[in-house]
Amino acid sequence: MNNDAVATRSMLHEAIPLTGTIVSGTYADSNIKNFTHGMWQAVYDYPYLSSSANHVFDLTVGFSPNSGLSASSPTDTANPQQVKKINMYNEMSQILVGYDATGSIREFDRDGDLTGGTKLQEVFFINFARLLNKDEIKKESFSLTLMCSGGNESKAPGGAGQLKGKFTFQDTNALSSYKVNSPAGEYGLLYNTTTNASVGLVYYQAGIAVLTSSVFDEAATGSDGSFEFGPYDKTFPGNTFSSVKAALTGAAISGSADGLRNRLVNVSFNNTTELNSTIYFCRANNNEFNYSANPTYLSASRLVVKNNNTDLPVSYVTTIGLYSSDNELLATAKLSEPLKKTPNDEFTLRVRLDY
User: Fold this and answer.
1) Domains identified in the chain, total number
2) Quick check: is 278 in a domain?
3) If you placed Cys at 187, which of 94, 150, 195, 203 could pair as Cys (CB 3.0 to 4.6 Å)?
């Protein structure tokens, strides 16, 4: 009957910690896969040629055609790396931000106000594998820690305009302030926990984090002038580009991804697995299921469980069957131990079917 079945939904969460040593250092980059197309870099938790390796996330970078870095058009073959970065930005924007009323691709927005506000035109993308984020990233659980300068890890943030050292970015207050104006689902704003400035976005169902490159530009204003965007060993600065903007225009996507990955200290979030369930209440009234259809229940036309003719019939319930409206068996559930059933007893057995 309809009132004997109830549909429910449960959310299961699992903590996912990713340390910088996993993605940069432990395996001497044998867990990093760069593709011939040069559009993104894949990161694994083990050397990727091993059968034990699991895909962790992809890294890529892009900037808007409207950015001041766009010295070339999306069709300019003289600057193939810039073209790839523009195309990557446009592709991710189409998926995550969508189009405006004129059919133009929207740009990522710092505060989620798609009709105005400050745009994020030069960004890094971290696309987490479905293996990790499952159905979605849990709101207000995302945390990303980066070394934003080329100086020593222990260096404290400086004064105004001198953001040096290690910084953490979180989707603070996302449970009450997340956005729903994305074709890819819900997303939250990433805030620098030191300055409380919005520096990116995290798309929960898509499992993608978008981080503005300006977090490194701000770090580069340190009075020691030590910032260089390149391979980074947490003791000495890299020796590749004097600023992140120089890297975005002068390096391949894989080189820019290396710069971000080698500054990654920690990423953590809780994933979500959505379980849809139907709970069936299977009722055995006092006058039902007191006899068994098992052939061993009878011997010489007598119930083997009765010693005297006046004894009540007895059966033992071991299995529950779920049937369709045309009496076709669809599923069975086994009890952990047999239940004794007599005309003096009534049972309501709860069967949960997850899907």
Assistant:
1) 2
2) no
3) 203
